[in-house]
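In full, the data:

***
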Amino acid sequence: MHLKRWLTSIIGIPVLIILISKGGIFLFALFIALVMGVSLWEYYFIVFSGRREKIATPIPAWSFLAGLLMVSFAYIGSLKLMLCLLMINLIGAAILSMPRFKDGASILLVVAKGIGGLLYIPVSLSMLVLMRNGPDGSVWVFFLLFIVFAGDVGAFYVGTYFGRRKFCPSISPNKTFEGAAGSILSSMVIGYSFKYFLLPDLNVFNAIVLILLVNMAAQAGDLFESELKRAGNVKDSGSILPGHGGFLDRIDALLFAAPVIYACKEFMIPG
């Protein structure tokens, strides 16, 4: 498992670095749209407990279209269009549910899962595109990735070798308080080192608060996806990434961390 994780990272990380730093905004948005599509499929597979006929219904299909539009609107930097799309998605899903209501009120659960999927994945990932579009965008995207990945590695290895006290056993039996502490420490060390060399103008206090908030959000995102998988009786969201599971297993922490760092960058840190 450890070898597969590292081999996947060794192959994937250089590609990601080149894409973010040299690929331009369009290719980055295209990559995010691809990750969004795969992850959204995995999400629906989880929440519908592997029932592909549910994934093929109009409401999830509508959400896939809305997800692509969400990333596109983020690419052109239009928060207003993104906000309008959220409401249009609700209206569209509601209309699509009406002819099927006669078959049972459970169609409303499909509506809720469709709307939840759009908020959970496309909206969160669109924050990365918005951030990439902003000043020093690629640096801030890397800053986020360094914080999240460092926390993930710290939690994994500290939890594996030193973990004793269970953190949230009903959701994830392997999570420990020691692993959570290791995650925070790793994120703080790597994140602050990154800030020192590449974001020297970022205030020290703001940097520490930001790193802590992003790490906490990332850990919450990891637990939330575990909660979804446990509810859906699924071990992994997929098998596309050896040693990591599916795309959703790999980006679950980013889905909560991206909105947090975007909000901090926009509203907490002076421009």
The chain is about 80% helix and 5% strand. The CA atoms of residues 220 and 253 lie 7 Å apart.
